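Annotated sample (chain length 147).
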Amino acid sequence: MQYALYRKFATLFSLLFVLVACEPIISPFSQEAYKNATTLKAQSLALIAKSGQPYSTHRTAVEILLVDVDAAYEYSNGLPKNGVVSAQWDILRDPDGNLLGGFARRWRNSGTLSPFIREEIRMQVGEAFDTIICVEINKREASVCEK
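Output written by the structure step:
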């Protein structure tokens, strides 16, 4: 009798383990999140290219872009099991960091940015977006993201 109870418990535990083990550890692919990342990457790089011009000329475009990036972060952060991607959006938008948020602050404070600074920021921001895009693509199908 005790053996039968043990066997039922072991079977139930095994089934429960299999069900939990099969649950994904990251949110599924989101076409909306992918679109956000690719669109915002293109917009960001276009704006970085203009940062040799006075900030005041592009202030509204910068503000709109930053709001759109915040919206992408909020969308990402609202998806279950999406902490890795949300953290990357948070780093990208941080005004005290060296990516998009820091770029906007630096451009605003400096008025214009030199070609060297623009190129460095373009490369770093592009790579940050590529990481977000790669993670999103890998939710759909595991692949190696290369340029």
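Annotation: The chain has one domain: 27-140.
Annotation: Residues 27-140 form one domain.
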